[in-house]
Amino acid sequence: MSSLNKCVLVLAIACLAPLVIAADDPAEERHERMEKVGDAAGPVGGMLKGELEFDAAVALASFVTMQQQVDGIGALFPEGSYVAGEDRATQAVWTNRADFDQKMSDFSAALDAAVAANPQDLEALKPVAQNVFKNCKACHEDYRSPGD
Amino acid sequence: MMHVSSRALVKFLGSCLGLGLLVFALAFWWLTMPDQLKTGELSYAEPDPINGEQMFHAGSCAACHEADLRGGHELDTEFGVFRVPNISSDPESGIGNWSTEDFLNAMLRGVSPDGQHYYPSFPYTSYVRMQVQDVADLKAYMDSLPPVQNRVAAHELGFPWNVRRGIGLWKLRYLNAEPVVQLAEDAGADLQRGRYLVEGPGHCGECHTERDSFGGLRLQAWLAGAPNPDGEGKIPDITPTAREIGEWSAKDIAYYLETGFTPDFDTVGGSMVAVQENLARLSPEDRGAIAAYLKAIPASAAAE
Question: Which of A44, A91, A140 minimises the CB distance to B267?
């Protein structure tokens, strides 16, 4: 490919990329990701509650899934993507952005730590999981509207 | 036929109108008179701050009045802006110089130490169902907490809501110490306790029940959900017929109140976070009692 063609291609991609992103619905996508995080939390929660048998591989897989879903999720909360009455993300996400970003990064850090810890029994899982779960509540307190 | 001059007629009608207004004013004055408990009218034993602390958590006082009770939170409502007062033990800007009777009058009658009505943004409509001893115990516990100097500005309400005396009429209609839910005569102690905690100190209905246009709770829709007073979203229906929470077992509810986890491991959110964290400090028996009561709310009350 000639360097001119390369330039044209790069330019074309640069021009089209924002359109492609804009075509997706960030509110929809972040909601789906959060649902997946919640689904992944289920098995670990069940183990803590004593409803499920401890399984190290399942616990680790849960943390890895959550880690993947949360990675880069901040980009799915772009300015102007608040949806009144439909989306559960509150306006505070945007009016208090630095704190929101901090909470998301705390959540990511807790997930990284959980994956690295790779707990091998229930006693080891408890503090690791609680360190992850406290972040859910911390963020939902201010940045998710109640019920629906 | 007797001759009546038009002048006399005007005078007569004027007198009638004047008399009518006077009667109306007197009736208003009498009907809206703040109903204070007299000193010694209600007896209580030596207050127990340990039980008071349980009441403090059951009522989530700190959720509205701030962790150190300094107050200052603003409630922006259709009636105007209410400012949550300082209820720390500071004698100047808080309630440190209140007697136990002052506190009982505030909690159980919605009347201030200087004999004025409080606005029902302070949920005495629920606290009216509390036992005198529990309120006295709560006072003893709050007295043991540190004073915080913080002067909170007055509410800002438009007419007619700024006429405090008018709250007397509102109280005639909405202030009622009777239980909301009638339990079966053979209802166990846990159900009775749960009803007491939910309808009294817990004041759950203040957020989970919708209000009419005068700001009174629509008891026929008891705990069946309401718009979020903080603006976004909806405070959920927590009756047995609720779409989601109705499916939860009593054990699920108690677990949620203890840990903040729903049965599918979603977490508590919004203003319920602070409430849940306070309820986590109650005894397991009390959380179980709350759960038992919530499962026992008659479907008819919610469905009407």
Answer: A140
Flag whether A100 is in a domain: yes
Among positive and negative, which fits the CA dihedral A50, A54, A56, A60?
negative
For A113-145, what is each residue's pLDDT tens digit? 999 999 999 999 999 999 999 999 999 999 998
The phi and psi torsions of B76 (rounded to 5 degrees) equal -90, 105
**Which residue type is seen at B183?**
L
The CATH number of whichever domain residue A52 belongs to comes to 1.20.120.10
- Token readout for B268 is 């508590």
Query: How far apart are the C-alpha atoms of A111 and A101, rounded to whole Å?
Result: 15
Cα separation, B218 vs B224, in Å, equals 10
Asked whether residue B286 falls in the same domain as residue B195, the answer is yes
What residues in A contact B260, CB-CB < 8 Å? Answer: 137
Number of continuous H segments (helices) and E segments (strands) in chain A: 6, 0
CA–CA separation, B52 and A141 (whole Å) = 27
Quote the domain boundaries for residue B55.
40-174
Q: Where are the alpha helices (DSSP H) in B66-219?
A: 100-109, 124-127, 132-143, 167-174, 189-199, 205-208
In terms of domains, do B158 and B75 share one? Answer: yes
Token code pair at residue A114: 């959980």
- pTM passes above 0.95: no
Residues in chain B within 8 Å Cβ distance of A141: 269-270, 273-274
Q: What ipTM was reported for this prediction? A: 0.79
pLDDT in tens, B26-50: 888 888 888 888 766 778 999 999 9
Amino acid making up residue B272: M
Any B CB within 8 A of A91 CB: yes
Q: CA torsion sign, B99 to B102 to B108 to B110?
A: negative
